[in-house]
Design a protein that fits this description.
Structural class: mainly beta
Number of helices: 0
Order of helices and strands: EEEEEEEE
Number of strands: 8
Strand content: 35-45%
Radius of gyration: 15 Å
Helix content: under 10%
Distance between the termini: 35 Å
């Protein structure tokens, strides 16, 4: 859904085959760029449920709580998306991405 006056995307919708257990999700060709607090993602193939987390240099094995402007994204080719991570406090050392087909996640960026 696009606002006609500004061209801003107000909402996105992606319909996926159901049930998910019968879908063989392909490797999406995920590309991630980080610039300050902005994280831009684009894909070569459709991606379902992109969930971003960060690891920190702290002693805890738990990920640092970061407030995201959006998360759990469906990303389609030719429709890159940008989200912001807030309250990261400059301690981030790794950005992880998990999605359908890669539920355990993988590191996509290191500082």
């Amino acid at each position: 859904l696009v606002a006609p006056e500004s061209g801003q995307v107000l909402a996105r919708y992606a319909d996926w085959p159901q049930p998910f257990r019968h879908v063989d999700f392909p490797e999406p060709g995920l590309h991630v760029e980080v610039a300050g607090e902005k994280v831009s993602v684009r894909v070569e193939k459709p991606l379902k449920g992109l969930f971003l987390t960060v690891d920190t240099d702290g002693d805890s094995a738990e990920p640092e709580p970061v407030r995201w402007t959006d998360n759990a994204l469906d990303v389609l080719p030719d429709d890159p998306q940008t989200v912001e991570m807030r309250e990261a406090r400059g301690k981030c050392v790794r950005l992880r991405a998990a999605y359908m087909g890669c539920e355990h996640g993988r590191i996509v960026h290191e500082w």
